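[Q] Does anyone have a clean structure-token version of this?
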Amino acid sequence: MNRRNSLTALVQGVAALATTLALVACGGGGATEETPSDVGASGGDEPGGSPGGGGNPGGGNPGTKPTFTAFAAGSAHTLALRSDGALFGWGYNAVGSLGDGSTTDRTSAVKLGDAAFATDVAAGNRHSLVLRADGTVWASGANERHQLGDGSISTRISRVQVPGLAGVKRVRAGGMTSFAQLQDGSVYAWGDNRWGLVGDGTRVERALPQPVPALNGVKDIRLGERLGAALRADGTVLMWGQDLAGDLGDPGAGDRLSPVPVSGLSGITAIAVGDLHVVALKSDGSVWTLGDNSYGQLGLGAVAYQATATAVPNVSGAIEVQAGAIKTMVRLADGSVRAWGDNDTGSLGDGSSLTRKTPVVASMLAGAKQIALGFAHTLFVRSDGALVGLGANTSGSLGDGTAVDRLQPVPVVGIDAP
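[A] Here you go.
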């Protein structure tokens, strides 16, 4: 079974259990956030028009496009944070990943919080984190590995506050693990730790936030399914987690339960992490990758894996790097986008469904301003400011009012201008 079929099977299987899981959503400790009044707790009307409504993707004034400060794409759900702090979400919701009080998949965007509501968002496979404007962290969705950090394994269809965290600056999620970095630079993590992804030197699953001193003061953190990376202020990179094939840049060393420096990476300005691969952007505009290359996600051709960081050929002038589970995208200074890796749903944006093991021009994303990659879907802000998506549309992950996969970009429906 390939990765795409595995995802479909996962979504279908979990959906069958969603009603049962929702029954425990009020159990356990922690404060519970009220469901926004414009989203019915039993899956009522979706703001911004009914599915398939089309038209202006922002819903509001024609020609007025909202701007966005953050996106988060999970396996099949998406969160978008508007510039005024209002939060929207769509896609897979059978276990409450959107936190709207329901277990109804949303094929169009629904408003999850009004203006000044949030400052950052993160999405794991089937859970979500929201950083509120007051510096607290709230979580919803699947919780089988304590990824919500509330001390329980109860599924939460409405957001619950993650205890013990205040003054948070950013949130990150990967697979079934969650991180928060505070304004003082300290880092906390919780959830799945089978491969050491919490980074605290153990494999002990963490039900509540635990400090990760080795990451204090880092510039950024990115998480995949089983490995993590952090960018330090000096332009070097730390990595930790599962090491199947030299993914951590140190062949034969085995899983790393605490962050370790990656040799060969310096002058790095941005990082991205897939399931088992890492992408690094250097200050000179070159892009470097290492880790698993089973689907060509490193952009290095037919090699099975690359244990040391290697420059991706024919890519220069890069200004942004993004990684999906098994694919990579790079935005260049000239406005063009390069992509490589898994493409069986057309999520690379080259108009095909062919896996690409070396960089190709993602013509559908020309002029894109911001990009977010899920497991098999891609969201981006077009040059005219419209929010659009392509690729897999499992459970409505593209937000266009349907669940039909798209080789051509379609607008997200239901996000109004502030």
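[Q] Thanks! Anything notable?
[A] The chain has a mean pLDDT of 86.
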